[in-house]
Amino acid sequence: DSECQFVTKDKCALEPLESCSLAPYRYSSQDASCLRNHKGLWLNSGLVECLTAEDGVNVVQEIHTSLGHDGTLDCKQLDIVVSVAEYLVEVDSVASISGFLLPTVHNDLREPSELTYDNHYIQRDPSEGKDDSFCFVHERITAKVAQFFKVQPLSIKAAPSSAIAIHFESTGPYESITHRIKGLVEDYGDNIDVFKELIQNADDAGATVVKFLISWKTFGQNNLLTREMAAWQGPALYAYNNKTFSESDLKNICKVAGQTKLTDYTKIGRFGVGFCATYHLTDVPSFVTKNQLLIFDPHLKYLGERVQPTKPGMQIDFVKENTGLQNHYSDQLAPYDGVFNCNTTNPEPNGFEGTLFRFPFRQPGVVSDICNDTFTKGSRSIESLKRSLIESASTILLFLQNVNSIELLEQNDKSATSSIFKLERKGEIKGPFQKSFCLPIGRDFSQPPTSQIERITSVSGKNRKTTLWVVSSALGQRKSLEQAQSYGVEDGLIPLTEVAVKVCKEDDGVIPLNTEGGLSCFLPLPFGCSLDFHVNGFFDITKDRRLLKRNIWNDVLISDSLVLAVLELLQYLANHAPDMHSARGDEFLHSYFQLFPTGEPKHDCVDSVRPILSTAFAKELKETKHTIVWTKSFGGCWMVPSEVVILGHDFLLTPFKDNQRVLICNLLVSQNVAVITVPSRLRHLFKELTFQEFCVFFLNNISHFDTAMRDKMTIFILQHLEAFKDRYSWLNDMIASASFIPTEPKGEFAKAAHLVDSSVTDIANLFAIEEGRFAADNYMKNRQVVVALRSLGMACWRLKDEDVLERAHSISNLDVDTAISRSRLLVHYLLEYHFKVYRATYSKPAKQLSESDKKLTSSLSEVAFLPVMKCPHSKFTCWRETDAIFMKSLDIFPSSKYKLVYTSYFTVDGTVPHSLTYLLTFKGNPNLQDILNHLKTIVSWWRNEKYGLCQAKEILKFLDESTKEIYSYLALETFGPASDVASLRKVRNKDVFAVISSELKDVPFIWQECDFYSVHCVFFEEKYKCLPYLVTLGNDRLSLSTSHLFKQLGVDDTISQRKLLLTLQAIKTDFEEISLPLAILDFTIYCSKRLNTYEENTNLFLPDVDGIMRSKNSLMYSDPQIQALYTRQECFKSLEATSSSKRQYRLHPKISFHTAQYLGIQNPLEALLSNYCDNSVISAVGYGQHEDLCDRLSNILRNYHADTSIFKEFIQNADDAGASEILFILDQRNFKDKTLFDPCHSNWKKLQHVPSLLVFNNKMFTDEDITGIAQLGKGTKDNSPETIGRFGIGFNIAYHVTD
After folding, report:
1. Which residues touch 1003 (CB under 8 Å, ≥6 apart)?
2. CB 235 within 8 A of CB 377
3. CA distance 964 to 238
4. H-helix or E-strand containing 239?
5. Please, are residues 592 and 573 in contact by the beta-carbon 8 Å criterion?
């Protein structure tokens, strides 16, 4: 108000920016009273109600503009800028940060990004001044304001770093980093081994040297990144390796239990939780590699504002920022300087060529969310830490890929350093050690197994010890490889295992030493195994490395890859073994066989590897081609396990003694059988040569042995055969099947079963001595041998089956007389000796043959040694003959079947006992078709030969018997084994009966009255007999089943009328115009009487007066009523004199006229009329299609009325005929009806009693008139113009009044 001036209203507002005055750049009611007094006026004029943060920012910009390039702020301007900045912080106006300027210590305005605020916690001496390399904000700008505007503090400017994000998998809705790390550390429990994890990481990085330093030195606490870091400047564990971190290593080390190396199976660290194990020692781990310093602070309380919950660590380029670090944080770098040649004071341009970890020990009083263990000098925890590395020193380098040197040092608080122990690995040759087996790259698993010697030297104080190891490596080639290629690669698994054993190497070879087994997953695991070698592999283990997981991967890795590694180890040792013929060879084998894994450990130790390995090893040993077993055979050599044998358990039992065992071994070695001797625990791994197998070998090579050795062994076996019997049930069969007994006279070897006891003459006489069937004399003189040979099958009272067969075969090679004799003797032997046990069942085969007897009888059935039955009668020419004297039983029928088959097949001679048919296989029942063909052959033969054989009683009797048997067979096939009449009334096998019926349909197959007859001629109960047309079966010669068969085939009880009719036709056919014999004539008369009620007699034939068969249509009988007329009238006599086609024959007088009438035979009158009857007299003129005669007449009359036209037509016809007179007479008379054309027809009689019209003219018909009057629709007058009748229908008009 004191300096009044006009301003535009856009620079004014009624209310100030809270208590902040922006005058003279902006005005409000606190700056101008006029604005306080007239608020309504100003609001209505459009004045804003209140100044905003934007106004404050604009004012600062205006101040900056007014200052120019070198201007400085005055007090008022400084107040305004500070006030606006504090206001923006208070209202949290983040949007106003952009473009805002802050005052510097030099009273000018600059961007916040160009400024630094001093956040150092140590009070500095003011005389030191500010570091000119940084531009600081004005002292009136508080740290809060500076942080709001993102001004970097001096601590970061002096040591710029990148925030480190530590990644982990959360196991719940929320899990802090410290909680996750704590869980991993607790999972380890007491088994946590920081050294192994760090060695593992170094090996993965490709380092060859690893060093550890336990330092008790304390460093300065002034120039640190934060005040809180002072708690970690004391004692620490350092870990050094000679490889630097890669970019991926830097990323991976920040992941908590993320298994970052899972899919990189060239990294052994994939099997543990790695770097997180170090949190067992410290809460603030750090390390230097190349130009980077990394510090982790998962608690977020030691690195201050540099860390965030998601990025609890920092990474500093200590080379690039060395000046700032030395000026402000020199104490922070001091603990690294000078340790294992690490230089952080004056670093090289590339930084530190290696990696140096520092793990400051957690000290008492430090509160940790991860672990409460503390580590102080001399404490149990420190000693346990040292011991964890020292105790595994002997094997820790064995399976590492790169690390060849490990050293543990200790430094006191005065910086004095001493070595606790040192390990170094070298090979057989000078120079750095190089692993011969490298982890595969990619998916190439083709690397073959390898072995190499590793020389490990340990130095502890003045003590120096060197141990030689053979390490063998192998990749799985079966299931583990399949698992790895299918999903194992994604899970970071490869089928690799290794084994290692201590050895002693001298000039002449390598000898394995006693080795206490252990288990490694590239580094020793905290649990062992009971094997006699160390095992390493890509096992799937728990994260804490405590246990192998029980899963398929570990199982297949052990059963596949580990087995191959063990075999590779054994092969290497075998290839480098000392002289096996010396004493050292025995020493070698003793230790060597200890390496063979078996199911039972030699000491008390249970593990999960040995059971799987021993089973798989035993299986693989049978298939492997590794030459890993020593044998003295072939002059001494290493052989494949499957090619060697050991003497089995059998040879350790009685009656074997040492001299027999020596004899057996000598026999085997002499024949180059690889025999070995192994410890008892390994016997199950090798094929045992059993006593049975030895016997096979001995018997198969009997001719190759020295005679004396052979006889000793042969006699030993035979003499102890009874003693062996209970134990070795197979021995009898084996020896019985071997040809090892010398025979007379030439000493050839023969089976015991081939021999015949020469002391039993009844059997021996069947053989000649030249046949070599008798044992040598020296064997037969030994009673024990004879008993043994008999028990082995030497024929004594019963020939061997093959001998029987051989005897049967021999018959064909003998002369006829000798052959017949041999045949009878052999048959007698079979029935009385060989098959004597079945003798009681020959007539009734109730007892079944044994399998061996079945086989023998089957074989005998195929040998031609049985005589064939010959034809019993020379005239019996239908018998099938053969030139063969002997035939197989398979090819002939038993003699009991010969009546069924003699026309087609052969049968055994009747001298052969029938009981043999129960032993040998003869042709069975002939089939149906054979029997039918047989019957038809007999019928055909008989019909051709019967006139010359009718007096041969033997043949007739034979036919009578054979036909009975044939009929019985057919009945059995048709009805089955029927036992009563009811079962015979129904055909059981319809298909069989259909064949029988079809085959015998037209065959006269029924044998009766010394001849064969068809079913139509044969009857069961017909009393009349007329051969060959009617035959009555004799009930005395037919079985019940045969009778029913004949009935089914058409044989009736009595002859039917139809069959009588057919029989008469057959007689006509047989005799034609010949007079019948009296018996047959009587039969025809008998037939006529039986047919008098049969209506279907159209084709009936009967005898005439001369006994000649005539058709009934050509016969006439003598009717008593017209008999007189017949004898008087010449017309009747002329009937018998007409031509043959019209001639009528008189029926035989023995056939009554009543019978003749019933049979439809004409009387003389009817015959006479039929002789004049012309059935073709009426004909119609054809036109169009066929039309019935009555229909034709009806159609003609439809167009003509029935009136006087009828008379006109008759008058016209009479006139045309030339008649001069015509009469029409209506006749009302009745006439008699006894002598009519057809007295039996009722219609004729009716016509005798109805009125009629008579038409008469005095002119007779000509033949042409008779023909013309019968034509319908067309007469004979068409071509006669002189006849008027040609214009009408003529005689047809008469059908209007009559039919």
Report:
1. 935, 936, 939, 1014
2. yes
3. 121
4. strand 236-241
5. yes
Q: How far apart are CA 1253 and CA 37, in angstroms?
A: 168
For 369-418, how does the pLDDT look when each residue is reduced to its tens digit (9 = 90+)? 999 899 999 899 898 888 888 888 888 899 998 999 999 999 998 889 99
The CA angle 1159-1162-1166, to the nearest 5 degrees, is 150
Q: List the beta bridge partners of residue 424.
A: 405, 457
Beta-strand relationship, 1018-1019 and 1031-1032: parallel
In 3D, which of 442, 536, 550 has the Cα closest to residue 496? 536
**Nearest in space to 61 (alpha carbons), one of 26, 29, 16:** 26
Question: What CA–CA distance (Å, rounded) separates 532 from 815?
Answer: 81
Distance, in Å, from the CA atom of 547 to the CA atom of 608, rounded to the nearest integer, reads 10
Q: Which residue(s) pair with 326 in the sheet?
A: none
- What is the amino acid identity at position 121? Y
* pLDDT digits 0-9 by tens, 688-717: 999 999 999 999 999 888 888 888 888 889
Question: Which of 1023, 1043, 1020, 1046 shows the shortest CA–CA distance to 1033?
Answer: 1020
What kind and span of H or E run contains 860? helix 851-860
Map residue 1040 onto helix, strand or coil. helix
For the question of whether the overall pTM of this predicted structure is more than 0.90, the answer is no
- Between strands 1145-1146 and 1115-1116, the pairing is parallel
Q: What is the DSSP string of 289-309?
A: EETEEEEE-TTSSSSGGG-BT
> Cα-flanking dihedrals φ and ψ of residue 278, to 5°?
-70, -20
Q: How far is CA 840 from CA 798, 835, 844, 910, 913, in A?
A: 19, 10, 8, 21, 14
From the first residue on, what is the mean pLDDT of each consecutive set of 10 residues in the chain (1299 residues)? Answer: 76 84 86 83 87 88 84 88 88 81 90 82 51 81 88 74 55 63 73 82 92 95 90 96 88 65 47 72 94 92 81 89 87 94 92 95 92 91 87 86 93 91 87 78 78 92 91 89 71 84 89 90 81 90 78 90 94 94 90 88 71 92 94 92 92 88 85 90 91 92 86 87 88 89 90 88 77 87 89 87 90 88 87 83 64 90 92 80 90 89 90 88 88 90 76 81 88 80 79 90 87 87 85 78 86 86 90 91 90 83 92 82 61 59 82 86 75 53 57 76 82 90 93 73 80 93 78 58 56 83
**Residue position matching structure tokens 């009554």:** 1152
Question: Residue 431 is which amino acid?
Answer: G
DSSP one-letter string for 319-350: TTTHHHHHHH-HHHHGGGTTGGG--SSS--TT
DSSP letter (8 states) at residue 834: I
The secondary structure of 450-489 as a DSSP string is: EEEEEEEEEEETTEEEEEEEEEEEEE--SHHHHHIIIIIT
What does the block give as tokens for 1100?
Answer: 């009936």
**Residues 677, 67: Cα–Cα separation, whole Å:** 108
One-letter amino acid for residue 420 of the chain: I
Residues 496 and 316: their CA atoms lie apart, in Å, by: 40
